[in-house]
Amino acid sequence: MSLRVxxxxxxxxxxxxxxxxxxxxxxxxxxxxxxxxxxxxxxxxEFLFGDSREGGSGPSSGLTVASWVDQVQELFPASARxxxxxxxxxxxxxxxxxxxxDLLERIEPNVELVKTLITHRELxxxxxxxxxxKIIDQVVxxxxxxxxxxxxxxxxxxxxxxxxxxxxxxxxxxxxxxVRRNLQHWDxxxxxx
Length: 193
Fold this sequence. Notes:
Layout: H1 2-12, H2 14-20, H3 26-29, H4 32-49, H5 65-75, H6 78-91, H7 94-99, H8 101-106, H9 111-119, H10 126-159, H11 175-182
Helix pairs in contact: 1-2, 4-5, 5-6
């Protein structure tokens, strides 16, 4: 039951869970290693999504952007890390993140990060500016590859008439190729195809 309560608290947030009376039941989940991981994950979520009006008085007040990034890398798989780091870039700590290349290196390059880097390029110092260019180049190369796989066949198919298309429409009719392929079925005795 305690794991279920912990999941509800993670979903609803600390304040809503307190109002619903769920936080008293969290005491059961706090025992053991799994409970410690739940509490740590809760603190990370509170740092990221928590109400900014708290003034840092909650358990996540000891976190900095750097420690948050380290803890997220320890606790979460790569797919979840990418989402959480994208939210971090959107919601908090842009100044610190954009000034420290060691933090910027640890964040998974994604489109959200590129948007932030381009939008706030005036906040970048020389070290982070060089790193930002590398990150942007990497994301652009990934996007280019994705688009190339989707767009190239459509464009090349329209431009290269020497390629055979399986679609049977009048526009794709190639008489030379059709006659050449059908000549192998020529019956010399009957003089027909």
